[in-house]
Each structure stands twice: as C-alpha cells, then as structure tokens.
Write a structure and sequence with these properties.
CATH topology of the largest domain in chain B: Rossmann fold
Strand content of chain A: 35-45%
Number of strands of chain B: 11
Number of helices of chain A: 1
Distance between the termini of chain B: 35 Å
CATH architecture of the largest domain in chain B: 3-Layer(aba) Sandwich
Number of domains of chain A: 1
Oligomer: heterodimer
CATH class of the largest domain in chain B: Alpha Beta
Structural class of chain A: mainly beta
Structural class of chain B: alpha/beta
C-alpha cells in the first residue's frame, strides 16, 4: 500500500453498524464537524473501516467525527467530533 | 400488526441462496430468499456476516443489485484479492446455503421512482451494482425520468449485466455508454479513463433537476466527482459511494 492510494471509504459504509443503534438512517443526516465547522451529509464523510471498528473523519479537516466499535457483547458509539446531527422529521 | 407497529432494532436475519449467476470471471450474482425482508430502495445495501466454526466473525457491506419486486434480493459480489468474505461468497457459497444478512441500510445513495428529474449514473467496475438496481427500479416503475449510465470497465469481458443492460438500454429513456480503460472491443476506438471531454460528450449537462450518482473504487469516485464539480455541477446534486478492499459496499 502506498500513501497516494486512498484507503478510506465513505459514510455510506457505516449504515449497517449505525442501524444497530439508531432508529433513523444517519447516513443521510447532516453533521457539523466540531473541529472546523464543516457541515455536510454524513454519507460524504471519510470512513476508515480498516481500523478496529469504524472511524469517520471530516472531509474538510480530517478530524474524527464518529467512531463505532462492536465487541461480542456491546457496541460503543463515540460522537464527540460532531457538534450536531440534523435529521429530517419523518 | 404489532411487529410492524413497534420499530424494531435492525438485526441479522438468515436467508437462503436460491440461485447463483456467474456474471464475469470474478463476479457472481447471488439470489437470496429472505422471509423477513421489508423491501428496499434502489441503491441501498445490506451487510453480510460470516461466522467461522470457532466463532470468529467478519462482515461486509454489499450493494443490492435488484429492485424490490416483493420476492427475492440479489447481490453481485466481485472477488477481491485475499478478501476473506468475498472469497467465500464467490468461491464457496452454493444454492441452498444459508447466509446471514442485515438490512436494508443506507438512505443517501438511493433513487426513488417518484422523482422525475434526470439521473446520471457513473459507475466504475462493480460500482455499477447499485446503479443497476436504480435502472431496474426505473424500468419496474415504468419511470420516464431520463437516465444515462456511464460504465467504466477495464475490457469487454469485465462488463457485469451485459445482457440486462442491453435490454434496459432499449428504452427511449435510458442511454448507456461503456468506457474501456485497458482494452476496447473492435469498433470502439477510445481506450482511457473518464475525463472532462468524455463527460461533456456523454453525460447530462449541469442542471437544477439533475441528480448524479457516482459509485466505484475511492480513487475513481474522487476523480469523477472532481471533474463534475469542475464542469459546473452543484456538489450537493452529486451523490457518491466509495468502495475498497475492506468493509465497504461493493
């Protein structure tokens, strides 16, 4: 693997893991990065799936937006990098 | 019914493989009967989970290839080198086997048949899979939304859904362009990746009605999305889905 081959996917690939925890689809939600203020659809975040668990990073500043780690007994969701998530009302 | 009234946590369900179709030397379509499947939108995906006898588990996300017509769900899986899940799905899984899945998931990279604006689909390799679901949904719903598919493949033998695409492209509302990146069949002079000139000639021009869907390996998606934005497309109207060697939809 070389540095110029991107290893990330995007937020779409986190849909399954997030659906274990959330009742609404978060990939279509709009999120604001707590680091740089970039606002965008979560599906467009950079997703690193080769880490332990899933790590979503801001496409603007690369700060961590969200982490999801599933163990045999529990799922951990770390949302500290998001100022907010905006979900349309059904 | 209580089961539908109470929103359940999405969890794993077992399906049975009812048919397998070899699409190319490295890709096959797996048809699944899923008794508890609630239906899906074109472009959504599902997660497949394999469990080894020692309890080790691996899951991957795959785009759904079929439009929901009330019966089965189809996946098309491309074998990736050393892929621990795709190797099993492409090389071992057989008709009658059980497969554990979770879905449908994803609400962004989807096309709804009630939308009437033109759709531009741009796929690289097996990135065509969710775009095929959209074209199938388009046909199933008798949509008259103008649709164009730009399908980038290495060579003619890499084309997935060759016959189905030919049938779909017979519709007045659907236009199909192959882009050959390594070797073109006789009569196709152009060999090379998608570039600005090709997009200008073959893709819909930017408009407020147009939605563009780009799916493929990450470098393909980033390149095409950048070309589209440079050509004047509103980034908010360009939806992207990337896949790669681990974990992502493909």
């Amino acid at each position: 693997m070389t540095a110029d081959v991107p290893t990330h996917l995007d937020g779409n690939a986190a849909a399954g893991a997030l659906s274990e925890v959330f009742a609404v689809d978060l990939t279509a939600a709009t999120g604001r990065c707590n680091g740089c203020g970039h606002t965008g659809v979560f599906a467009e975040a950079r997703l690193y799936a080769d880490a332990p668990g899933l790590v979503a990073r801001c496409p603007g500043c690369e700060d961590v937006l969200l982490r999801v780690v599933t163990t045999p007994t529990d799922t951990y969701v770390d949302l500290r990098g998001l100022t907010y998530l905006r979900v349309p009302n059904a | 019914m209580e089961r539908t009234a109470v929103r359940r946590r999405l969890t794993w369900q077992a399906g049975t493989v009812t048919e397998i179709r070899e699409e190319t030397a490295t890709a096959r379509t797996i048809v699944l009967d899923l008794p508890d499947w609630p239906g899906h939108l074109a472009g959504q995906h599902l997660d497949v989970r394999l469990t080894a006898p020692d309890g080790y588990r691996a899951s991957r996300s795959y785009s759904i290839a079929s439009a929901w017509t009330g019966t089965t769900v189809e996946l098309t899986v491309e074998q990736v080198p050393d892929g621990e899940v795709s190797s099993y799905l492409v090389g071992v899984l057989g008709v009658g086997d059980q497969l554990e899945v979770r879905g449908p998931v994803g609400g962004w990279f989807v096309w709804r048949p009630e939308s009437t604006g033109p759709i531009q689909l741009i796929g690289g390799g097996s990135g065509v899979v969710p775009l095929m679901a959209m074209l199938r949904q388009h046909a199933h719903a008798s949509s008259t939304a103008p649709a164009r598919l730009l399908y980038s493949v290495r060579r003619a033998t890499s084309v997935i859904y060759r016959e189905d695409l030919k049938t779909l492209a017979a519709s007045d509302d659907v236009d199909l362009t192959f882009v050959y990146t390594r070797e073109a069949p006789p009569g196709e002079p152009r060999v090379g990746r998608i570039d600005a000139e090709l997009l200008a000639a073959k893709a819909f021009a930017p408009s407020d009605e147009l939605t563009t869907y780009v799916c493929g390996p990450t470098p393909f998606v980033e390149t095409v999305a950048d070309l589209l934005v440079a050509a004047g497309h509103d980034p908010a109207r360009v939806r992207t889905e990337r896949f790669g060697p681990t974990g992502g939809p493909r």
